[in-house]
Amino acid sequence: MICKICDSPSEQLFNGRIRNGAKGLSKNEATVYKCQKCKVGFLESQESLSLQDYQSNDYHEKFQYMQTERSKKILEFLNFSSNSSIIDIGAGAGQLINEMNEKFTTCSFFGLEPSKELSGSNIFNNFDEIKDKFHYATNINVIEHVDDPLEHLRSIHSLLHDQGKLYIMTPNSNDYNLTLFPKSFSQHFYRTAHRWYFNEESLLKILIKTKFKIDAIEYVHFYNVENIFKWAEKEYSITAQARPTSPLINENFIKLIKDNKLSSHIMIRVQKNGN
Ligand SMILES: [Zn+2]
User: Fold this and answer.
1) pTM of the prediction?
2) 151-186 pLDDT, tens per residue?
3) Host H or E run for residue 233
4) Which domains are delineated in the chain?
5) 150 CA distance to ligand 1 centroid (A)?
């Protein structure tokens, strides 16, 4: 398989049944490839769902995803100058827009959401409808879903004012769980709704290719240390008798995971660099 992002050859990374939304595992085995050059992981297009499919099905993970705890963590990383305009690309049910609106009261917020479940005078359904330019764009857990990430990022680039900034977040394909629990966690991590699997290297490469320059990189981890026991039970069918957890252990665990770039998600802030 040739990588659609950099036209280089890839190698097989995983083969097996993978997560298929709320329906459990996919009926057929799927193959995940990894580009030898840019290191992005990807599903063959016929194995991943079409846009229409995930809009009505797995894409709804996106709607449930932005729940309180997680969106609080995401909000910690977002910072906007006063009186700026922000567009959330892949706005889901509009939750992040509402929360950003409450925090940054002088800013104006817009959204792009193709699934038409979200409407309003500040909501667009596709890139072509948007005639304005924005100071910031947010793209939270969206890039892994789109068919063509290059085109998607170029479209966002063209929506930004000169030196406008983009916050982009996606699951981290260097998540430590993939190494610790290669069988059970891989089936959970790889999913029909996610065509693309980025780590820092592949995400930086595509952002530079689409004319952004890197401002800041943050590792975000959404799970506490207890999560390890859950996957250990699944992978090895063992039940831990004692679960040594405490807020301090948890804090150190999360710091260790983030310092080693092995967290569940990666967030990068970039600035528009040229036209
Ligand atoms: Zn590539």
Assistant:
1) 0.91
2) 999 999 999 999 999 999 999 999 999 999 999 999
3) helix 227-236
4) 10-272 (3.40.50.150)
5) 11
